[in-house]
Amino acid sequence: AATLREAAEATGRFMGTAIADGRLSDGTYTGIASSEFSSVTAENVMKWDAIQPSQGQYNFAAADRLMDFAAANDQQVWGHTLVWHSQLPSWVANGGFNADQLDQVIQDHINNVAGRYAGEIAYWDVVNEVFNDDGSLRQSVFLNTLGEDYIADAFHYAEAADPSAKLCINDYSTEHTGAKSDALYQRVSQLLSEGVPIDCVGFQSHLILDQYSASDIQANLQRFADLGLEVVITELDVRMDMPADQAKLDRQAQQYRDVIGACVAVTGCTGVTVWGFGDADSWVPGTFPGQGAALPWDDNYQPKPAYTGIMEGF
Ligand code: XIL
């Protein structure tokens, strides 16, 4: 294969990237984004604070730009994300809504956002990061006001707003087995038994260099796939302590290869998305001080060993 998207396509899978709206005017960036990837996820512009910053006031311009970019480049769009405690405007987080009011706020948001793009979005992260690391449900305005039913309700609202999108639950530190993954497994099983329209599970996979087990990831993806759901690696990156060196970059390449391989070994694992492709655009240095070099292209958009690792993983 000449590109990652071709390598993925040869196995019947998609290869995606998060897209930073601010980079769409850079030809080097858009050249790689369009040629190497068959799926795009909005890194920020479909989040609640970006798309409905005050009640009833929607900013669709940047999200529309991503939709147009995807259409021009024959790419699917992964919608990210409808209900999340973070990047949530304070009019929702601190709005003092009672349960009926907040339920209506969520329904309106999903209707307007998922409804606008109905038929054009392949997958939606309906809920994002609803768990704590110990597997309990995360405290948020949603849980605290509505109780755990807000999760099922969000899926029903999304199904009504866009019946053709596949509807996913997405989280981090769930790619390996463990308490958080077990809680996700129980939750998803329960939602399915209640007839909640859930189609897929997203495993963010913000990994740390040398901290992974490909066989454990594969087994974990497989148990979710065995529930009849699609499983997807949705936000892959592999960060390392800076500075990077050749030995670390080579181990990173192996790690990317092994994680892609874990997906390819699971029939129900239908694609992989990296959380950006060039190190200069990565969220990692700003979020994890002292760490970086997490993506398959370097600061100058030159492919790293990790690029070849992904290619060989498919
Ligand atoms: C991150 C973006 O990459 C940053 O630009 C932003 O400042 C914060 O959010 N899990 C998610 C993503 O689901 O939305 C987050 O994206 C990274 C962690």
UniProtKB/TrEMBL annotation:
- The residues responsible for catalysis, as annotated, are 235
Q: What is this protein called?
A: Beta-xylanase
The EC number(s) attached to this protein equal: 3.2.1.8
| Organism, as annotated | Streptomyces chisholmiae
Which intervals hold domain GH10?
1-313
Q: Which UniProt keywords apply?
A: Carbohydrate metabolism, Glycosidase, Hydrolase, Polysaccharide degradation, Signal, Xylan degradation
- A Pfam family: Glyco_hydro_10
Q: Which reaction does it catalyse?
A: Endohydrolysis of (1->4)-beta-D-xylosidic linkages in xylans
* Protein family per UniProt: Belongs to the glycosyl hydrolase 10 (cellulase F) family.
